[in-house]
Design brief:
By secondary structure, this protein is mainly alpha-helical. It has one domain. It has 3 helices and no strands.
Length: 67
């Protein structure tokens, strides 16, 4: 059965790139970036779901951190 988990998809893509006879360094870098993004995205979603609603000031501070 195919997975829809973004982290697994990104991890599989990266592994597939490493199994090729000729390594595409740019594609590997992009795949690593995508995997890292998927992990951060999940962590942020989980953290935000676990806390009460943030104040406007807290949301602004978080937005600034992500810039």
């Amino acid at each position: 059965m195919a997975t829809t988990d973004p982290i697994m998809l990104a991890r599989n893509r990266l592994a597939g790139l490493h199994n090729r006879p000729v390594l595409d360094r740019e594609a590997i870098t992009e795949a690593r970036r995508n995997l890292t993004f998927a992990k951060v995205e999940r962590s942020v979603k989980e953290a935000l779901a676990a806390v009460p609603a943030m104040t406007a000031e807290q949301r602004s501070a978080l937005i600034e951190l992500l810039k």
